[in-house]
Design a protein that fits this description.
The protein is of the alpha+beta class and 250 residues long. It has 6 helices and 12 strands. The protein has one domain: Glutaredoxin.
Length: 250
């Protein structure tokens, strides 16, 4: 999702940063409702200070709540076939045997996607020797920027290409739309230069190809509309991703 400080969308009284934040809150709530519906009755809310059931023992309660880490019924993650930032054909099945940390990103995003990218990089380093057993994957949500060059440029800009297992996947719009639907991801793109508002959800998929947890990344904005996350929360998110992935790997 891109942020354009100082402009206002037509027909709305909110400034763009507030409008985008509201859109993300609504979309995230809708996405979690859809995910819970898919996994009913085993999905468990992690809101509040009470420790959610089913959270890995190595993840503290405050960290689980920061991430909105939520266990889901173990079921096969929807498959896909796309190409990555190097033009390599990639299927979810080809990643079996690895823990898959899956997000949905906009390669022209200047808002939450770069923040999640840093969390991925931090998580990779936090994993240590376990890193070879974890794949970090994103699926493109920008219908106007579907090329391999688009996802490759974003990967370089945000140092994601320093992660050996990194895959930023793209492909034909019909295929992407199917994947968005299967993973309950909502996408709103009003034009090639407009902001893409989309669900920001991390799926943790076990080595057996089954979904195990979801989490909801968040960010904040300065008065100028620049997205950020306090450094402590940023590093905590990376550590949390690594802890969940390590638990699934073992």
């Amino acid at each position: 999702m891109k942020s354009t400080p100082g402009k206002q969308p037509r027909g709305h009284g909110l400034g763009l940063p507030q409008f985008v934040l509201l859109g993300l809150i609504v979309i995230a709530a809708g996405t979690f409702a859809a995910i819970a519906s898919r996994h009913h009755p085993s999905a468990t809310s992690s809101a509040g200070s009470i420790r959610p059931t089913g959270i890995p023992a190595n993840v503290s309660t405050p960290l689980a709540n920061l991430m909105t880490l939520t266990p889901v019924r173990s079921q096969p993650a929807p498959g896909f076939t796309l190409v990555d930032q190097k033009g390599r054909r990639t299927t979810l099945a080809s990643l079996k045997g690895h823990v898959v940390v899956l997000e949905f990103m906009d390669p022209h995003c200047t808002d939450i996607c770069p923040i999640v990218s840093q969390e991925f990089v931090d998580a990779y380093h936090d994993l240590g020797k376990t890193a070879s057993r974890v794949a970090f994957v994103a699926v493109n949500v920008n219908r106007y920027h579907l090329s391999v060059a688009d996802v490759a440029a974003f990967s370089r800009e945000h140092s994601l290409d320093t992660i050996p297992s990194w895959r930023f996947l793209t492909g034909p719009l019909p295929a992407l739309r199917t994947i968005w639907r299967h993973y309950a991801i909502e996408v709103e793109a009003r034009g090639p230069n407009a902001d893409v508002v989309h669900s920001s959800i991390v799926y943790f998929i076990g080595p057996n190809g089954k979904e195990r947890y979801v989490a909801a990344p968040t960010d904040d904005h300065t008065k100028a509309g620049v997205a950020y996350l306090p450094s402590g929360q940023l590093s905590s998110w990376g550590r949390g991703m690594a802890l969940v992935a390590r638990d699934l790997a073992h």
